[in-house]
Amino acid sequence: MECTVSWTGAAGTRSGMGFVAETGSGHTLTMDGAPDSAKPENGGQNLAPRPMETLLAGTGGCTAYDVVLILKRGRHDVRGCSVKLAADRAEVDPKVFTKINMHFTVTGKGIPATAVERAIAMSHDKYCSATIMLGKTAEITTSFDLVEAA
């Protein structure tokens, strides 16, 4: 796996904190920093997600992917899956994630709650590289709602 991240500055200038990532699979992802009112040249313009937000989003994508795949492999009629992540970070540098809560909402027909619980646990404990990696610095908790599809 590879990725190239390049500083773009702000709106094509070489000031600001905009970046574009080009992934090995041929996709691009834009990132930006938070505005800095004290030193505008050191801040971003809030034009894209922060890098740490992108890391959190990637973790959500990784675990949701696992949950859907595990449920589908179990021949469950899964029709939707979302995960809302809420994270706390350390107060001082490096400001690593210290707590992450993942709340899943799984929609389907006739899916037993035990199957969803098992899929989340398998992702958390065995398959999701991002969750397992972030678990080295953060306490990760999970919960879920199961919605019966019409």
From TrEMBL:
The protein's name in its UniProt record: Redox protein
Family annotation (InterPro entries): KH_dom-like_a/b (IPR015946), OsmC/Ohr_fam (IPR003718), OsmC/Ohrsf (IPR036102)
Region (Disordered): 25-48
Organism classification: Bacteria, Pseudomonadati, Pseudomonadota, Betaproteobacteria, Burkholderiales
Highest taxon of the lineage: Bacteria
